[in-house]
Amino acid sequence: MHETAFLIGQIFNGFSVASLFIMAALGLALSFGLMRVINMAHGEMLMLGGYLAYLTLLVVPGPLGILVAMPVAFIGAALLGAVLELTVIHRLSARPLDTLLATWGVSLILQQAARNLFGAIGVQVVAPSWLNHTISFSTGILSGLTLPDTRLFILAVAALILGGVALLINKTRLGLYVRAVNQDRPIAAALGVNARLIDLCVFALGTGVAGLAGVILALLGPVTPTVGQSYIVPAFLVVILGGLGSLVGTTIASIMVGLFTALIEIYVDVSVAQVLLLAFVILFIQIRPQGVIAVRSRALEG
Amino acid sequence: MLLELESACAAYGQSQVLWNVDMGVTQGDAVALIGRNGVGKTTLLNTIAGVQKLTGGRLRFGGDDLTSTPAHGRARAGIGFVPQGRHVFPHLSVMENLTVGLAALAGRKAVKESGIASHIFDLFPKLTQIRNRKAGLLSGGEQQQLAIGRALAGQPRLLLLDEPTEGIQPNVVQQIEAALRRIRTELGMTILIVEQYLDFAWSFAESYHVMQRGQIIRSGSTQTESADEISHLVNI
User: Fold this and answer.
1) For residue A188, what is the nearest residue in chain B, using CA coordinates?
2) What is the third-level CATH fold of B3-222?
3) Domain residue ranges in chain B
4) pLDDT tens track for B76-96
5) Which residues in chain A (193-252) have CB-CB distances under 8 A to chain B?
6) What is the least distance, in Å, from the CA of A245 to any CA of chain B?
7) ipTM more than 0.90?
8) Total of domains in chain A
9) How far off is chain B from A246, nearest CA to CA, in Å?
10) Which B residues 58-117 touch A at CB under 8 Å?
11) Which terminus of chain B has a lower count of CB atoms within 10 Å, N or C?
12) Domain range spanning residue A20?
């Protein structure tokens, strides 16, 4: 296999890992930016999405099942997110540490519930045949490079979601209200914006996107009660690295973390790569504590 | 009475800032709230806008009891708010700031038009020129004009103004004062204004309330009384 082909393959892998991080971190970043809360049960939204994909495929087998599973997972996770926001997070608002603890508890409850319902081993979601191809190169410097369709699919879904959320935030009235509440909650409320409802919508949107990410995860490996855990830690890293709540920052940070992991794995094994990733994040935050994108303007200084 | 406060109390944690304030604003009037720094003028305005909670007493607006109505509900009932320090949304453009003001129109029946009324740009022509600039980059005077325009976008029945000329360069102060007079005469707006300058308060408002230590200690008419009579309550 040609060296260039290998490198390009790793970069491609980096981007597809980054896509998963974006989808997992988007909700965390949005709700942290708006409400300053960290939802420890966010990973379980991924898990829920995975199990919903599994269940949907039992009901709707066949090649298009996965396309049905995606809206089902989105709506299911968004609904659970809305319930979580209404029953736990809103009641603990302005108490970040309590929220952290309470949502961690919710996370454990959801994991155990999944274990009771589906077993600890995990269930398998089989990718439809139209995602079973790979694009392979056999000549030239790209000889030996293979790009699996599932990974291309992940990239496309992440790009669509990111584009959709960016449009929603930047071009719609709802998005304008989200940005207004983000910048000055009491004044936005005094101008007639129902900030409570905005919180609820954004939180549900974020968990819904995590549910979608869960469907994608199900295509890559078995869905287990703890499947969310392995993605939530890098997602937290991404949110911190990105600048706590910035959409652009989250995207850039996802790509940074994805590429860093993929490229470092050329030289070292997976666990050392994890250590180096953490070292990289610590170093980066030391140099640039505000993250990739800092929120700053004349009116905010002073 | 368009607005009625009945023994209103407010506190920051353990320290009480407003003590049983009774106050009313009649439809069509302009009322000036005056007093030294730190006597509770801003707190009083904030409690009317719903930014600060009432810890006691009642608030009625247009005949409805809004005591426990949250801030967005009060805005939708027709209370427009121009806060102290302007508080424009720094990362939103001028147009976007004005559009947020339209949120107060949600669920309202007597709304003339759903867009940003043209008289706002007529009052503040500068806003047209800078419509696409980020509000955080504007000068103080421009931000103040934007904050007033943003409150007007919600077509309020009562406009709360908290020191609209504070910290603004003198020639812009005159523009803003002229615009406020036009808001009164042309739009017939009912206004409650916190104002440090007695001269402007006297020429602008029909009546006044003087605050001291969280209470209204004197009220009266600017038409029949002279500003000199109360200047000792305001000046240091």
Assistant:
1) B100
2) Rossmann fold (3.40.50)
3) 3-222
4) 999 999 999 999 999 999 999
5) 193-196
6) 14
7) yes
8) 1
9) 12
10) 70-72, 74-76, 81, 83, 87-92, 96, 99-106
11) C
12) 3-227
